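Batch job 17 of 40 flagged for manual review because the log was empty.
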Amino acid sequence: MAILRKIKDKIKKIAKSNVEDIEKAGEKPNIKKTDSKREIKKEVLGVRETVVEQSKFSHPETTRIRRSIPSELPHQYDEDRIVLQVRDPRWIHAYWETKGSTIERFRNELGHDFYQAKKTLRVYDVSQIIFNGNNAHRFFDIHISEFANNWYIDTIGPGKSWCVDLGLLLPGGRFITIIRSNTVHTPIEGPSWITDEEWMIPEEMFARLYGMGFGFGRSSPVGRAWQERVKQALFSGALASPGMASMASPVKKIPKQRKFWLMVDCELIVYGATEADAKVTVQDRPINLRPDGTFTLRFALPDGKQFIPVKAVSCDELEERTITPIVSRETKSSSLVKAQK
């Protein structure tokens, strides 16, 4: 009996060691239970062979790194910058950012005055000039809060150019610029007074289009009558500039027995702008300015050289400026009548 017991214990140890080897290889033994005994039905493979068998058809997926998009824009970009943009003819908007190192530098330079200074926006009127920091037509200051980073500005003047400085206004009145903005141009309130010569329409064509717009078609009797009246007005000088008809250049016409004709003339448009309260004269004649200080004049342009002095005097009569456009015109004409065949 003792011998049989030793043999049975040895068989159990062998079976147990085989099961442990299989479990180390990652497989579970296939054990069938029968009424008489438990049979282990599994081919025992080495650890290396089992791993190779398991990984033979393994296809690992490539790991892709997803781009992380921030949900919010950063509050600051750590730069000194002020941007000016137009909202409408009267209002502009400025937003800015200053680096902490810039503020610290001014704090060290100004010392005690830094804490008494007021954070200020200085708004410059730089219409029709190249701004160098000292030649603005005028400026006004806006005191802003310490923590403000944008501001809406009422310019009270459409049709002008503006530039803004963010700076510090010291108790003694000295202004120190921290950063300067770009220059913007506000539109005028109403149709533009600037005329582009490339799109000018001759008076006769304008009158014809005007008549057609009211139903005076080219083929209708009324349309023909309209065109005849326009022709007569052109040759008589009735459509020339007011008070300037006598200055119109002479026009040569083909004899009346023929219907073929050609007419060419030129006009001059002078426009400008100044302060709305200034006094302006053109050729020593006073003219009326628009509310925004602009003006437009239309002149006949005869042959020869024309001098058109424009003088503006400030409302307090302390400043006076004169600009004189000089325009020359030379008209050449020729005619040829071929003999009828």
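Reviewer: the log was empty due to a logging misconfiguration, but the result itself is present. The CA atoms of residues 278 and 315 lie 5 Å apart. Unflagging and moving on to job 18.
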